[in-house]
Specification:
Distance between the termini: 16 Å
Largest sheet: 5 strands, mixed
Order of helices and strands: HEEEHEEEEHEHEEEHHHHEHEH
Bound molecules: zinc ion
Strand content: 15-25%
Oligomer: single chain
Helix content: 25-40%
CATH architecture of the largest domain: 2-Layer Sandwich
Number of strands: 13
């Protein structure tokens, strides 16, 4: 009999993004028992976002009850700066909150224990324990979507630094470049995010596109404007990754997020341009993520089962021992 049936337990996992939320009930092997998707009402304001998160958690809790299962905990991961030790959502430009005691608020509203984590570190943890970076000790996971953020594992431990580590998207790659949403100028995000690639293509060619995915399709078809935009983006990514490699010396760089769906169209040039920039440094392999857009939700499930965001081997908690999909 599967363990979840024997113990009758599951966890709630919820990945809150800038536009949508992905939630699931997961068993001990992180298999989804039920899954939900909702829009994030971010234009209505942070209170509405918190209310919607609570509603989704309660809906999943009800589904567990209906299925005869007990919810052990909820793991909720959000973007921005998250202080996992204090369980506070410190800052999110997208969701509009500052220094919000989000785990406490959700526990009050749902009467469930809640572990609060960061979406990209959760995705990185899932890739590290279950996906493309399994078995590696020094890893840089980079999520490239509307924005760019990274999660580093160094000597087998995730780097957190009170939630401020991993802001790769705000490394400056062009000091005279475009203003960034962070208040800086010429950040990697202004050149190489999916949103920046789409905007740069339209600015250059005068042709609107639905997103970076369409630019990738045009690139594959030999479009010279797409090629120029892609060259600039992959060169900027390689420059930022070379800096990160010099500091962190990962053995493996995992590229995830929506832009990584482009596969070798992205990985090939980034690999080549990064190799050209490195001299004495450790040379990381550059690979695509395994878990796609489920990584954040699976990471939230890992946090929920562990009862903490620290998933390094020496941490305690009610670790089910072996995690596999
Ligand atoms: Zn910035």
């Amino acid at each position: 009999m599967p363990e979840d049936e024997r113990t009758g337990e599951c966890v709630i996992a919820l990945d809150v993004g800038g536009t949508g939320m992905k939630g699931a009930l997961l068993d001990r092997r992180l298999r989804p028992l039920t899954a939900v998707r909702r829009a994030t009402p971010r234009t209505v304001g942070p209170d509405a976002v918190v209310a919607e998160i609570s509603a989704v958690v309660l809906e999943l809790a009800q589904a567990a009850t209906d299925g005869g299962l007990t919810v052990r905990r909820a793991g909720v991961v959000v973007p921005g700066v998250v202080d996992e030790e204090l369980a506070r959502a410190v800052y999110s430009a997208n969701l509009g909150w500052r220094d919000l005691p989000l785990a406490d608020l959700l526990e009050d509203r749902t009467a469930l224990p809640v572990v609060l984590g960061h979406d990209v570190r959760a995705g990185g943890a899932a890739e590290w324990l279950l996906g493309a970076a399994r078995g590696a000790r020094d890893v840089l996971f980079v999520a490239i979507g509307t924005g760019i953020a990274a999660a580093a594992v160094s000597d087998g431990r995730p780097l957190r630094a009170r939630g401020y580590a991993g802001e790769l998207g705000h490394l400056v790659v062009d000091p005279a470049g475009a203003p960034c949403s962070c208040g800086g100028r010429g950040c990697l995000e202004t050149v190489a995010s999916a949103a920046a690639i789409a905007a740069a293509y339209t600015a250059r060619s005068g042709r609107p596109v639905s997103g970076a995915e369409e630019v990738a399709t045009l690139l594959a078809g030999g479009d010279t404007d797409a090629q120029a935009v892609w060259d600039r983006a992959t060169d900027a990514l390689a420059a930022a990754l070379a800096s990160a490699t010099t500091m962190l010396a990962p053995e493996l760089i995992v590229l995830g997020g929506g832009l990584a769906e482009a596969g070798e169209l992205l990985l090939g040039p980034v690999r080549k341009r990064l190799a050209e920039r490195l001299t004495f440094q450790r040379r990381p392999d550059v690979v695509g993520a395994d878990l796609g857009d489920e990584a954040g939700c699976l990471g939230a499930g890992l946090y929920a089962w562990r009862g903490a965001c620290d998933l390094s081997a020496r941490s305690g908690g009610d670790d089910p021992g072996t995690w596999s999909l």
